[in-house]
Amino acid sequence: MNHPLLDLPPLTAERFAQIEQGVADLLGTRQDVVITQGEALLPLEGCIRSGARPGSTALNIVTGPYGTTFGNWLRDCGAAVVDLAVPFDTAVTAGRVAQALAEHPQVDFVSLVHAEAATGNTNPVAEIGEAVRAHGALFMLDAVASVGAEALLPDSWGVDLCVIGAQKAMGGPAGVSAVSVSERAWARFAENPAAPRGSYLSLLDWKDRWIDGGRKALLHAPAQLEMLALEACLDRITAEGLPAVMARHAAAAEATRSGAVALGLSPYVGRASEAAPVATTLRVADASLVVAKALAADPAAPLAAGGGALAREMVRVNHYGRDASLSAVLSSLTALATALRADPAEALAAAEAAWAEALH
């Protein structure tokens, strides 16, 4: 029996290149874009293993769990690593980054996560990028959670490696990702004898065989379903308009924060200006138990307990993609109120008012 999701013709190089151009348009970049056939950890590790090596020094900015992962990869590549860690309930400042760069003039690689969906914070990349550019280091940005939810301008911000995934604000699959690569980054990769080659992690293989070859022949058979889903995400964002998509995410964040405060809960990220538009994190005692009770009341509510030790104290309200909506915010607040045995009326009214004000 034929099935539309199973009996697919091979994806042509021309179609693949068109989808790549769609990603470039979304990022507003003139840099090369490589779509990688896997979750975003694939290009993130590929960027680090291509750009770091013995003798290099990296400034690894840690504002959440992914920064720890990046530091481990950098050390595994033989790089000396300077970790700039800040509490997970805040954001790093450009001043802190500039100070760290001044104290370590040998730094030639900087890694940063834009928005941390796991902890609910977001970092001021434009200002940080200015400091990194003045220093002259290569700048890698994990924008998986921020793309589509807030401003992301890799070219004007001086980002050399901007990694995105489709599974958060874009509302797509986790099995495909992409990275924009500057000319400086390509040169850095080419000078690194330890950069992956003949490997799924190799970005240089895509440069040599795909980009420099005129995008005529793919390195391997792409995953059609994921690529078509990515194309559908790009089409949907274009149809709605990127500014409208970002405004919807910002409204969901403001509505969730206002409703949670009205419910008597404290935001995990204290300053609203440092809170990510993809997820609102809340300080809740026995968070795992509260989430379990909330999901028992409404299994569809986009709620999760924090990871690791944060499971004891953090509830995460995920409002990204299709859940960047007033209905998802209200269902989350209602489920939390049920778990806490509280009246949700005031929280729902506060959320509705904040949503309307944000989109006014």
Largest sheet composition: 7 strands, mixed
CATH architectural designation of the largest domain: 3-Layer(aba) Sandwich
CATH-assigned homologous superfamily of the largest domain? Type I PLP-dependent aspartate aminotransferase-like (Major domain)
Give the assembly state of these chains: single chain
Helix residue percentage: 40-55%
The global form is globular
- CATH class bucket of the largest domain: Alpha Beta
Count of the separate structural domains: 2
Question: Could you explain how this protein is built, in words?
Answer:
- The chain is α/β, with parallel strands linked by helices and about 350 residues long.
- It folds into two domains: about 15-240, Aspartate Aminotransferase, domain 2, CATH 3.40.640; about 240-360, Aspartate Aminotransferase, domain 1.
- It contains twelve helices and 13 strands.
- Strands 1-9-8-7-4-2-3 form a seven-stranded mixed beta sheet, sandwiched between helices. A four-stranded antiparallel beta sheet has the order 10-11-13-12, covered by helices on one side.
- β12 (about 305) and β13 (about 315-320) form a beta hairpin.
- α1 (about 15-25) runs parallel beside α8 (about 225-240), α9 runs antiparallel to α12 (about 345-360) and α11 packs antiparallel against α12.
- It is globular.
